[in-house]
Structure prediction request, 163 residues.
Amino acid sequence: MPTLSIGKVRYVWKGTWSATASYDILDRVQDSDGFIYESIKAVPAGTVLTNENYWIKLSVQGPRGDKGETGNDGPKGDPGEAPTAILYTEQNNLTDAQRAQARTNIGWATAFTASFATAISSWVTASFNSLVEAYLTPILKQLCLDNGATQAEIDALENESDS
Prediction:
């Protein structure tokens, strides 16, 4: 009895279309938008899906439907409680141990030593010493003069203290 070859009789799913692949008749592919195409004859690699000599579009996009109605609001959730570790409550009655622990926690001693004490020392060196000298020197000169010192003796004492 003679055999008759009729080829493919149903489609073969090939997945997402690739420009580098070739396809046989009845191969089905999907484009990046989700539309399905079927080859109507052997397709050389690189043949775009919009080429109607090789492809037929099997799915189409319909018109956009109406927007549905907004659903009901859900039940109100439990407000819960914040953990006490993050709550702030003003306290003026801390014990000495609590104050010490708080200072340790925020690095108070280190910060004070590193910045505030250095700033005070710089200020004393730069400003306070000159202010004290500017204030006290005229008073001391006047006291010396009132107690019988000469201007030459006072000038000599000033030169000694500067050296």
